[in-house]
Fold:
Amino acid sequence: MAVSPIKLIFGVDGSYSQHLAVTLVSLLENNRGNTFDILVVTLNMTVQDKARLRSVVDGFANVRLRFKDFDISRYSHFRTDGHISHASYLRIFIPEILAESEERVLYLDCDLVVQEDIKPLWDFDIGDKVIAAAPNPFFVRHDDLDLPPDADYFNAGVLLINLRRWREADGTACLIRFIEAHHAHLYAHDQDALNAVFLGEFAELAPQWNFQTSMLWCEPEALSLRYEEFRHLVDDPAIIHYTTPSKPWHFGNTHPHKGIYYHYLMKTPYRDYKPADVSMASVVGRALRWPQVAFRDQLPGAYYPTRRAFRHLKTSYLGLKV
Structure:
Protein backbone atom coordinates (compact mmCIF):
# COMPACT_ATOMS: atom_id res chain seq x y z
CA MET A 1 0.00 0.00 0.00
CA ALA A 2 1.36 3.43 -0.97
CA VAL A 3 2.48 5.63 1.90
CA SER A 4 0.68 8.97 2.08
CA PRO A 5 3.02 11.91 1.47
CA ILE A 6 3.88 14.53 4.05
CA LYS A 7 1.84 17.62 3.11
CA LEU A 8 3.92 20.79 3.29
CA ILE A 9 2.99 24.39 2.58
CA PHE A 10 5.13 27.52 2.32
CA GLY A 11 4.05 31.16 2.03
CA VAL A 12 6.77 33.13 0.25
CA ASP A 13 7.46 36.60 -1.02
CA GLY A 14 9.40 36.42 -4.30
CA SER A 15 12.35 38.19 -2.71
CA TYR A 16 12.84 35.15 -0.45
CA SER A 17 13.10 32.64 -3.32
CA GLN A 18 16.80 32.05 -2.62
CA HIS A 19 16.10 31.22 1.01
CA LEU A 20 13.26 28.87 0.11
CA ALA A 21 15.71 27.06 -2.18
CA VAL A 22 18.02 26.55 0.80
CA THR A 23 15.15 25.25 2.92
CA LEU A 24 14.04 22.82 0.20
CA VAL A 25 17.52 21.39 -0.36
CA SER A 26 18.07 20.89 3.38
CA LEU A 27 14.65 19.25 3.74
CA LEU A 28 15.03 16.86 0.80
CA GLU A 29 18.64 15.87 1.46
CA ASN A 30 17.82 14.90 5.04
CA ASN A 31 14.49 13.19 4.28
CA ARG A 32 15.18 10.78 1.45
CA GLY A 33 13.02 8.13 3.11
CA ASN A 34 9.90 10.32 3.06
CA THR A 35 7.67 11.49 0.23
CA PHE A 36 6.40 15.06 0.02
CA ASP A 37 3.54 16.98 -1.53
CA ILE A 38 4.70 20.62 -1.37
CA LEU A 39 2.62 23.68 -2.20
CA VAL A 40 4.38 27.04 -2.40
CA VAL A 41 1.95 29.96 -2.08
CA THR A 42 3.61 33.01 -3.58
CA LEU A 43 3.50 36.78 -3.68
CA ASN A 44 5.39 38.47 -6.51
CA MET A 45 7.52 35.46 -7.48
CA THR A 46 8.96 35.59 -10.98
CA VAL A 47 8.74 32.83 -13.56
CA GLN A 48 12.55 32.60 -13.41
CA ASP A 49 12.57 32.01 -9.65
CA LYS A 50 9.88 29.35 -9.95
CA ALA A 51 12.02 27.62 -12.56
CA ARG A 52 15.06 27.78 -10.27
CA LEU A 53 13.07 26.26 -7.42
CA ARG A 54 11.80 23.49 -9.69
CA SER A 55 15.40 22.73 -10.64
CA VAL A 56 16.22 22.36 -6.93
CA VAL A 57 13.79 19.45 -6.55
CA ASP A 58 14.50 17.85 -9.94
CA GLY A 59 17.20 15.68 -8.42
CA PHE A 60 14.81 14.15 -5.91
CA ALA A 61 12.26 11.50 -6.86
CA ASN A 62 10.28 11.75 -3.63
CA VAL A 63 8.64 15.17 -4.05
CA ARG A 64 5.81 16.85 -5.89
CA LEU A 65 6.20 20.65 -6.05
CA ARG A 66 3.39 23.03 -6.98
CA PHE A 67 3.01 26.83 -6.97
CA LYS A 68 -0.05 28.96 -6.33
CA ASP A 69 -0.07 32.74 -6.70
CA PHE A 70 -2.10 34.59 -4.09
CA ASP A 71 -3.74 38.00 -4.42
CA ILE A 72 -3.43 39.73 -1.06
CA SER A 73 -4.49 43.17 -2.28
CA ARG A 74 -7.67 43.06 -0.15
CA TYR A 75 -5.42 42.87 2.91
CA SER A 76 -2.73 45.36 1.87
CA HIS A 77 -3.65 47.46 4.93
CA PHE A 78 -2.32 44.74 7.27
CA ARG A 79 0.70 45.94 9.22
CA THR A 80 4.23 45.20 7.95
CA ASP A 81 7.56 46.24 9.46
CA GLY A 82 11.21 45.87 8.57
CA HIS A 83 11.94 42.46 7.05
CA ILE A 84 8.31 41.28 7.42
CA SER A 85 6.26 41.51 4.22
CA HIS A 86 2.61 40.69 3.56
CA ALA A 87 3.73 37.13 2.77
CA SER A 88 3.79 36.49 6.52
CA TYR A 89 -0.01 36.74 6.54
CA LEU A 90 -0.38 33.93 4.01
CA ARG A 91 -0.41 31.52 6.97
CA ILE A 92 -3.86 32.64 8.05
CA PHE A 93 -5.39 31.70 4.68
CA ILE A 94 -4.00 28.15 4.51
CA PRO A 95 -7.30 26.34 5.30
CA GLU A 96 -9.01 28.31 2.51
CA ILE A 97 -6.20 27.72 0.01
CA LEU A 98 -6.18 23.95 0.52
CA ALA A 99 -8.99 21.62 -0.51
CA GLU A 100 -11.73 20.98 2.04
CA SER A 101 -10.74 17.31 2.07
CA GLU A 102 -7.28 18.14 3.50
CA GLU A 103 -7.24 17.73 7.27
CA ARG A 104 -3.58 18.12 8.19
CA VAL A 105 -0.67 20.17 6.85
CA LEU A 106 2.78 21.24 8.01
CA TYR A 107 3.66 24.89 7.46
CA LEU A 108 7.31 25.98 7.38
CA ASP A 109 8.89 29.42 7.11
CA CYS A 110 11.63 29.74 4.50
CA ASP A 111 14.30 31.28 6.75
CA LEU A 112 15.15 27.89 8.20
CA VAL A 113 17.09 24.72 7.46
CA VAL A 114 15.95 21.18 8.19
CA GLN A 115 18.66 18.88 9.56
CA GLU A 116 16.74 15.72 10.45
CA ASP A 117 13.95 13.37 9.42
CA ILE A 118 10.72 15.29 10.00
CA LYS A 119 8.44 12.24 9.99
CA PRO A 120 8.21 12.35 13.82
CA LEU A 121 7.09 15.97 13.55
CA TRP A 122 4.47 15.08 10.92
CA ASP A 123 3.23 12.20 13.10
CA PHE A 124 3.00 14.34 16.26
CA ASP A 125 -0.29 13.73 18.08
CA ILE A 126 -2.00 17.09 17.95
CA GLY A 127 -5.15 15.70 19.54
CA ASP A 128 -8.08 18.10 19.21
CA LYS A 129 -5.94 21.23 19.22
CA VAL A 130 -5.90 23.59 16.23
CA ILE A 131 -2.11 23.99 16.03
CA ALA A 132 1.08 22.38 17.29
CA ALA A 133 3.99 24.81 17.66
CA ALA A 134 7.15 25.45 19.67
CA PRO A 135 7.32 28.13 22.39
CA ASN A 136 8.71 31.59 21.65
CA PRO A 137 11.01 32.75 24.50
CA PHE A 138 10.97 36.18 26.13
CA PHE A 139 7.41 37.17 25.20
CA VAL A 140 6.12 39.95 27.52
CA ARG A 141 3.43 41.79 25.51
CA HIS A 142 0.42 40.00 26.94
CA ASP A 143 -1.50 43.25 27.49
CA ASP A 144 -1.16 44.27 23.83
CA LEU A 145 -2.97 41.10 22.76
CA ASP A 146 -5.49 40.89 25.61
CA LEU A 147 -3.81 37.69 26.81
CA PRO A 148 -3.77 36.45 30.42
CA PRO A 149 -0.41 37.30 32.05
CA ASP A 150 0.55 33.62 32.29
CA ALA A 151 -0.49 32.67 28.75
CA ASP A 152 1.98 30.69 26.68
CA TYR A 153 3.12 32.16 23.37
CA PHE A 154 4.30 30.14 20.36
CA ASN A 155 6.44 30.88 17.33
CA ALA A 156 4.59 30.52 14.03
CA GLY A 157 7.56 29.54 11.85
CA VAL A 158 6.80 25.82 12.19
CA LEU A 159 3.12 24.94 12.47
CA LEU A 160 1.44 21.55 12.36
CA ILE A 161 -2.14 22.51 11.55
CA ASN A 162 -5.35 20.62 12.25
CA LEU A 163 -7.30 22.00 9.30
CA ARG A 164 -10.59 20.44 10.37
CA ARG A 165 -10.51 22.13 13.78
CA TRP A 166 -9.38 25.45 12.28
CA ARG A 167 -12.32 25.45 9.91
CA GLU A 168 -14.76 24.46 12.63
CA ALA A 169 -13.56 27.46 14.65
CA ASP A 170 -13.90 29.75 11.60
CA GLY A 171 -10.28 30.59 12.32
CA THR A 172 -9.43 32.67 9.25
CA ALA A 173 -12.37 35.04 9.73
CA CYS A 174 -11.55 35.38 13.45
CA LEU A 175 -7.91 36.14 12.63
CA ILE A 176 -8.82 38.83 10.11
CA ARG A 177 -11.12 40.52 12.63
CA PHE A 178 -8.43 40.41 15.32
CA ILE A 179 -5.76 41.81 13.00
CA GLU A 180 -7.96 44.70 11.98
CA ALA A 181 -8.96 45.47 15.58
CA HIS A 182 -5.41 45.31 17.00
CA HIS A 183 -3.45 46.67 14.06
CA ALA A 184 -1.29 49.06 16.11
CA HIS A 185 -0.07 46.40 18.56
CA LEU A 186 0.78 43.52 16.22
CA TYR A 187 4.56 43.86 16.40
CA ALA A 188 4.88 40.16 15.49
CA HIS A 189 2.12 40.50 12.88
CA ASP A 190 0.06 37.36 12.17
CA GLN A 191 2.01 35.44 14.83
CA ASP A 192 0.49 37.73 17.48
CA ALA A 193 -2.96 37.18 16.02
CA LEU A 194 -2.55 33.40 15.89
CA ASN A 195 -1.57 33.33 19.56
CA ALA A 196 -4.50 35.47 20.61
CA VAL A 197 -7.20 33.81 18.51
CA PHE A 198 -6.03 30.26 19.26
CA LEU A 199 -5.33 30.83 22.95
CA GLY A 200 -5.41 27.43 24.66
CA GLU A 201 -5.74 25.69 21.30
CA PHE A 202 -2.13 24.79 20.58
CA ALA A 203 -0.10 21.74 21.52
CA GLU A 204 3.53 22.36 22.41
CA LEU A 205 6.29 21.03 20.17
CA ALA A 206 9.78 20.41 21.52
CA PRO A 207 12.13 23.31 20.72
CA GLN A 208 14.27 21.02 18.54
CA TRP A 209 11.58 21.42 15.85
CA ASN A 210 11.90 25.21 15.83
CA PHE A 211 15.23 26.32 17.25
CA GLN A 212 14.96 30.11 17.18
CA THR A 213 17.83 32.58 17.36
CA SER A 214 16.53 33.94 20.68
CA MET A 215 17.06 30.49 22.23
CA LEU A 216 20.80 31.07 21.95
CA TRP A 217 20.42 33.64 24.70
CA CYS A 218 18.16 31.55 26.96
CA GLU A 219 19.15 29.76 30.10
CA PRO A 220 18.28 26.04 29.92
CA GLU A 221 15.56 26.41 32.57
CA ALA A 222 13.64 28.83 30.34
CA LEU A 223 13.02 25.90 27.97
CA SER A 224 12.49 23.37 30.78
CA LEU A 225 15.70 21.56 29.80
CA ARG A 226 18.65 20.24 31.73
CA TYR A 227 21.98 21.78 30.74
CA GLU A 228 23.06 18.68 28.77
CA GLU A 229 19.76 18.66 26.84
CA PHE A 230 20.09 22.38 26.16
CA ARG A 231 23.61 22.01 24.82
CA HIS A 232 22.46 19.23 22.48
CA LEU A 233 19.63 21.49 21.28
CA VAL A 234 22.00 24.39 20.60
CA ASP A 235 24.60 22.22 18.88
CA ASP A 236 22.31 20.03 16.76
CA PRO A 237 18.66 21.12 16.44
CA ALA A 238 16.36 19.31 14.02
CA ILE A 239 15.21 22.60 12.49
CA ILE A 240 17.26 25.81 12.69
CA HIS A 241 15.02 28.85 12.38
CA TYR A 242 16.95 32.06 11.70
CA THR A 243 14.59 34.43 13.48
CA THR A 244 15.21 38.15 14.17
CA PRO A 245 16.01 40.69 11.41
CA SER A 246 19.67 39.58 11.31
CA LYS A 247 19.85 36.64 8.90
CA PRO A 248 22.71 34.33 7.89
CA TRP A 249 22.77 35.85 4.41
CA HIS A 250 23.79 39.18 6.00
CA PHE A 251 27.51 39.85 6.36
CA GLY A 252 27.05 41.22 9.88
CA ASN A 253 25.21 38.14 11.14
CA THR A 254 26.98 36.10 13.84
CA HIS A 255 24.70 33.07 14.19
CA PRO A 256 26.74 29.98 15.15
CA HIS A 257 24.94 27.95 12.45
CA LYS A 258 25.40 30.55 9.74
CA GLY A 259 27.70 28.20 7.83
CA ILE A 260 24.93 25.60 7.52
CA TYR A 261 22.86 28.06 5.48
CA TYR A 262 25.78 28.55 3.06
CA HIS A 263 26.42 24.80 2.92
CA TYR A 264 22.98 24.27 1.39
CA LEU A 265 23.07 27.51 -0.60
CA MET A 266 26.01 26.09 -2.58
CA LYS A 267 23.66 23.32 -3.80
CA THR A 268 21.13 25.76 -5.31
CA PRO A 269 21.02 27.96 -8.43
CA TYR A 270 21.68 30.90 -6.09
CA ARG A 271 25.16 29.69 -5.17
CA ASP A 272 26.83 32.85 -6.51
CA TYR A 273 25.12 35.05 -3.93
CA LYS A 274 27.26 37.67 -2.14
CA PRO A 275 26.03 39.62 0.92
CA ALA A 276 24.93 43.12 -0.02
CA ASP A 277 25.51 44.66 3.40
CA VAL A 278 29.32 44.63 3.42
CA SER A 279 30.38 48.04 4.70
CA MET A 280 32.60 49.64 7.29
CA ALA A 281 29.60 49.83 9.64
CA SER A 282 28.82 46.11 9.30
CA VAL A 283 32.49 45.18 9.80
CA VAL A 284 32.71 47.31 12.96
CA GLY A 285 29.34 46.04 14.22
CA ARG A 286 30.36 42.41 13.85
CA ALA A 287 33.68 43.09 15.57
CA LEU A 288 31.93 44.71 18.52
CA ARG A 289 29.55 41.76 18.91
CA TRP A 290 32.29 39.17 18.60
CA PRO A 291 33.45 39.03 22.29
CA GLN A 292 30.01 38.21 23.67
CA VAL A 293 29.23 35.80 20.84
CA ALA A 294 32.58 34.05 21.27
CA PHE A 295 32.03 33.79 25.03
CA ARG A 296 28.61 32.20 24.42
CA ASP A 297 29.69 29.79 21.68
CA GLN A 298 33.19 28.84 22.83
CA LEU A 299 32.74 28.79 26.62
CA PRO A 300 29.08 27.84 27.16
CA GLY A 301 29.84 26.19 30.51
CA ALA A 302 30.86 29.59 31.86
CA TYR A 303 28.56 31.79 29.77
CA TYR A 304 25.16 30.53 30.93
CA PRO A 305 25.92 30.63 34.70
CA THR A 306 27.31 34.15 34.21
CA ARG A 307 24.18 35.21 32.36
CA ARG A 308 22.03 33.71 35.11
CA ALA A 309 24.00 35.60 37.77
CA PHE A 310 23.53 38.90 35.94
CA ARG A 311 19.80 38.20 35.58
CA HIS A 312 19.54 37.54 39.32
CA LEU A 313 21.47 40.75 40.06
CA LYS A 314 19.17 42.81 37.85
CA THR A 315 15.94 41.45 39.27
CA SER A 316 16.82 40.90 42.95
CA TYR A 317 19.13 43.83 43.70
CA LEU A 318 18.49 46.46 41.05
CA GLY A 319 14.76 45.88 40.66
CA LEU A 320 14.98 45.80 36.87
CA LYS A 321 12.78 43.78 34.59
CA VAL A 322 14.59 41.30 32.34
The longest strand covers residues 6-13. DSSP finds eleven helices and ten strands in the chain.
